[in-house]
């Protein structure tokens, strides 16, 4: 075993793999293990296999900056994206570092040994083992744990029932009456696909409408792909163009009330032009654009013209053994029930106990929701780093971009630990409080405060998921650590001379 400090990464999705790649490329570090609860890499792209599943972000910007790719489409399918991450895992020799079907059930900091003691459970056998690590990186993402709407009677349903994030491919929907609860990003992708078969009758149960952007997906021609492959820097230029377009989107949707009004009028016109006239009043939101996740229409509005697709806005009172009873008392018989109700994004799932003998969940609850310095480090949790932690999701740009920005920041923080110049590093409470105050002050005047959404604790509390500025600002803030915002154990003078003095 290497004498270099051991790193544990939790999760082998895009962020966990990107972190492992950086460990190898930046530090030449090989003493790390990735614990993954699934049976392969890919995270959300391994798990989400529903019909029509694809990225909302153009693939030129939804891939690592170090590993640009010849994508066949502007917005990749889940199969293409999964193949990309499997390919990178093989390219960088990561499979030998990954332990599949294992989950970390507890990570507890030992101040005396300056290590984390981790309890790891084998999900196949139920057996638990104990290991240690000098550094723990959380790469579990925010869309890993499906949330079922709290509707009474779910357990009584006698038909087939599943969540869109755990699509059951063994079920043939032909000739079935299918109920879909939810009309967010997943539902608007798979409903047009399953209703292409006129023998599948779908009732889409909706609570609130969503703002939909016109379709942006397209298949690339062989000529375009050949040009990008053979002209130096072409891939990079396309990537920059997408980045700049999304930065303008931030300005138009999140950063300027006047421009947001213009966008609102344009999207209202699009919905009125595309959707059936009788549904206009229901489909056009009353809340401002950007308050909830803005969805790229994948021909959902056109699908609403199909006779085998009905939309129900009456609300679901309860689920029965043979269907749904709405809040107006109507009984709707169903053979299959699909929950497209999103993910648990307001409760951090990884059990970690720091040097204050408090779990990270207890720490977050005490603060009214997730709170982390630059969305990456938390007071009381030395050598613990979060990718896509609190207030990192931008709402307008690529999560792969923000992930790379965070990983670059983390690589700088862990350099003195890996080099054994210090034993541990912990962000100060004052720096975290000041940062959170700044973030929450911006959020209090933002569009995110105007509706119920998964961006907020409990749907309407503190905004814990969103970063309230442009992606460029996120990069600027995380470009270089402010070492004065950290306290260390062991080698304080080394840190001061080598890093703080710069």
Automatic annotation (TrEMBL):
Gene3D superfamilies: FAD/NAD(P)-binding domain (3.50.50.60). It comes from the Eukaryota. It holds the Pfam family FMO-like. Keywords: FAD, Flavoprotein, Oxidoreductase. One of its GO terms (molecular function) is flavin adenine dinucleotide binding. The keyword Cell wall biogenesis/degradation does not apply. Belongs to the FAD-binding monooxygenase family. PANTHER family: FAD_NAD(P)-BINDING DOMAIN-CONTAINING PROTEIN-RELATED, L-ORNITHINE N(5)-MONOOXYGENASE-RELATED. This is Uncharacterized protein. It comes from Agrocybe chaxingu.
């Amino acid at each position: 075993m290497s004498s270099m400090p051991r790193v544990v990464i939790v999760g082998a999705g895009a962020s966990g793999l990107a972190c492992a790649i950086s460990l190898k490329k930046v530090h030449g570090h090989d003493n790390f293990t990735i614990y993954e609860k699934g049976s392969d890499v890919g995270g959300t792209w391994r798990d989400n296999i529903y019909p029509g599943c694809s990225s909302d972000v153009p693939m030129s910007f939804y891939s690592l900056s170090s590993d640009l790719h010849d994508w066949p489409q502007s917005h990749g399918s889940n199969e293409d994206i999964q193949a990309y991450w499997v390919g990178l895992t093989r390219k960088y020799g990561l499979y030998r570092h990954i332990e599949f079907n294992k989950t970390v059930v507890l990570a507890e900091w030992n101040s005396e040994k300056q290590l984390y003691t981790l309890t790891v459970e084998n999900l196949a056998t139920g057996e638990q083992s104990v290991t240690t690590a000098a550094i723990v990186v959380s790469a579990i993402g925010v869309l890993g744990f499906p949330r079922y709407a709290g509707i009474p009677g779910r357990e009584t349903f006698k038909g087939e029932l599943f969540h869109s994030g755990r699509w059951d491919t063994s079920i043939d929907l032909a000739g079935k009456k299918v109920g879909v609860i939810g009309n967010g990003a997943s539902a608007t992708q798979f409903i047009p696909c399953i209703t292409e078969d006129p023998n599948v009758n779908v009732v889409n149960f909706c609570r609130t409408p969503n703002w939909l952007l016109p379709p942006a997906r397209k298949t690339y021609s062989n000529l375009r792909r050949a040009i990008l492959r053979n002209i130096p820097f072409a891939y990079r230029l396309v990537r920059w163009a997408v980045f700049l377009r999304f930065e303008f989107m931030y300005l138009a949707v999140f950063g300027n009330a006047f421009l947001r009004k213009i966008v609102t009028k344009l999207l209202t016109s699009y919905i009125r032009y595309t959707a059936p006239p009788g549904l206009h009043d229901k489909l056009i939101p009353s809340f401002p654009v950007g308050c909830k996740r803005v969805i790229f229409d994948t021909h959902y509005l056109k699908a609403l013209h199909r006779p085998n697709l009905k939309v129900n806005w009456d609300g679901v009172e309860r689920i029965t053994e043979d269907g749904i009873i709405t809040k107006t008392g109507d009984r709707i018989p169903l053979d299959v029930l699909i929950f497209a109700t999103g993910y648990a994004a307001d409760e951090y799932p990884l059990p970690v106990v720091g040097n204050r003998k408090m779990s990270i969940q207890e720490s977050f609850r005490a603060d009214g929701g997730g709170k982390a310095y630059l969305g990456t480090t938390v007071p009381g949790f030395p050598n613990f780093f979060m990718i896509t932690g609190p207030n990192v999701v931008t709402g307008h740009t690529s999560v792969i971009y923000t992930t790379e920005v965070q990983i670059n920041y983390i690589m700088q923080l862990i350099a003195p630990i890996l080099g054994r110049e210090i034993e541990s590093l912990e962000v100060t409470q004052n720096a975290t409080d000041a940062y959170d105050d700044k973030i929450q002050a911006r959020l209090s005047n933002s569009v995110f405060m105007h509706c119920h959404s998964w961006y907020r604790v409990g749907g309407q509390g503190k905004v814990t998921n969103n970063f309230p500025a442009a992606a460029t600002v996120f990069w600027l803030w995380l470009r270089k650590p402010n070492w004065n915002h950290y306290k260390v154990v062991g080698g304080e003078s080394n840190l001061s001379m080598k890093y703080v003095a710069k």
